[in-house]
């Protein structure tokens, strides 16, 4: 299968980059690692990915009604509901300079892959960057062929998330603003910053002081939140139906509760539920290895809760996927928090579950319509 072959090749070069003894070798291996998934996305047929054809129609407008005018193109973009000026300029300038839609696919995927790669290395204290890259491929790569604009913005935020931990807040906010001008979901980066400060406070303390601060989020609170999370997960549809029945929720939401898309998101929600259970079970091992994942566990919980919105609103999953790239580092923490043979076993278990998720979600159900892969040349 072409996707798995490309994933393996890319991860192999990423592993060589990690083992490289000098900067030149690291850069060279990293370029080889990134160019494989970038070209896979850029050379695909326009039928691969639900939204690929939508971006093509925008490109065709450039060569048609806009008459090659950048001003006309921007006017068309904003009149048709577009709100993100950087993305409009990005696509408009590419069309004007090159006149080739595949250049847009190439550069858009480059932004995504470079953002993920840089973020993986900036978060290397939490998760092995090679494992982070592999998890991205198995969990979200195929979806980037659909939600191109959203994952461009999320990749930029993922590369910047470490700035919160380093307390480089101004730089982080600049990245949030830039990402929000590509896709407005990135504005959630501001509440994310507030969440981090609510958990850890404003101190830059490390070591024992950091551990003491993080212990404020007690085990009891985690258990209570985890229990509520499981309860909401299991009863969400029933709760929504009850609210509709008594008139507190509009009956139009029944079509979402009964839709096929709700079933397609079940694998994602189950995956997150298993992940949260695993994180809560091994929380003490994180502490013993000086890893403090409270913030990331709460992000995963938010990811799952927001995913439940997909059962009652079309944009629910889109809002939830804001946390998707952050989540790959959180999963990596489950491996980093182990030692010896247990670390190897947990690593293989994580990869196996992620592979099964990919096979079911993108292979069996063909979520995002990326199967079968076809070249567009």
Radius of gyration: 21 Å
What helical percentage do the residues reach?
over 70%
Summed over residues and divided by their number, the pLDDT gives a mean of 78
User: Which ranges are low-confidence, i.e. pLDDT below 50, for 5 or more consecutive residues?
Assistant: 204-217
Number of domains: 2
**Number of helical elements:** 21
Report the count of strand segments.
Answer: 0
* Large-scale geometry: globular
Q: What is the structural class?
A: mainly alpha
Distance between the termini: 19 Å
Q: What sequence of helices (H) and strands (E) makes up the elements?
A: HHHHHHHHHHHHHHHHHHHHH
**Strand content bin:** under 5%
Concise summary:
The chain is mainly alpha-helical and 377 residues long. It has helices at 2-19, 23-42, 52-63, 70-79, 85-97, 101-122, 129-144, 148-160, 162-165, 169-180, 189-200, 207-214, 219-245, 254-257, 260-264, 266-281, 283-288, 294-307, 316-320, 324-336, 340-364.
């Amino acid at each position: 299968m072409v996707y798995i072959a490309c994933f393996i090749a890319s991860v192999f070069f990423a592993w060589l980059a990690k083992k490289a003894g000098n900067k030149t070798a690291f850069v060279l291996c990293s370029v080889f690692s990134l160019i494989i998934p970038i070209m896979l996305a850029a050379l695909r047929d326009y039928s691969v990915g639900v939204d690929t054809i939508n971006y093509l129609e925008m490109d065709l407008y450039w060569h048609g009604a806009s008459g090659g005018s950048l001003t006309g193109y921007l006017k068309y973009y904003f009149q048709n509901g577009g709100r993100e000026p950087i993305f409009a300029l990005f696509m408009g300038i590419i069309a004007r300079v090159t006149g080739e839609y595949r250049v847009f696919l190439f550069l858009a995927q480059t932004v995504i892959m470079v953002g993920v790669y840089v973020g993986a290395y900036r978060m290397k204290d939490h998760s092995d960057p090679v494992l982070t890259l592999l998890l991205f491929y198995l969990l979200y790569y195929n979806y980037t062929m659909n939600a191109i604009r959203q994952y461009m913005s999320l990749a930029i935020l993922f590369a910047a998330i470490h700035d919160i931990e380093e307390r480089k807040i101004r730089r982080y906010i600049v990245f949030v603003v830039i990402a929000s001008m590509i896709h407005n979901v990135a504005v959630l980066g501001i509440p994310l910053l507030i969440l981090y400060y609510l958990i850890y406070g404003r101190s830059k303390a490390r070591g024992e002081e950091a551990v003491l601060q993080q212990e404020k989020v007690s085990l009891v609170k985690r258990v209570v939140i985890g229990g509520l999370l499981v309860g909401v997960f299991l009863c969400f549809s029933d709760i929504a139906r009850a609210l509709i029945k008594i008139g507190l929720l509009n009956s139009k939401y029944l079509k979402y509760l009964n839709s096929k898309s709700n079933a397609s998101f079940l694998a994602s929600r189950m995956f997150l539920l298993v992940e949260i259970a695993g994180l809560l079970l091994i929380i003490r091992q994180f502490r013993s290895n000086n890893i403090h994942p409270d913030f990331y566990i709460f992000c995963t919980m938010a990811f799952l809760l927001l995913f439940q919105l997909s059962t009652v609103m079309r944009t629910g999953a889109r809002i939830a996927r804001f946390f998707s790239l952050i989540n790959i580092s959180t999963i990596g923490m489950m491996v980093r928090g182990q030692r010896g043979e247990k670390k190897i076993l947990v690593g293989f278990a994580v990869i196996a579950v992620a592979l099964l998720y990919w096979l079911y979600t993108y292979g069996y159900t063909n979520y995002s319509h990326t199967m079968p892969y076809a070249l567009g040349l």
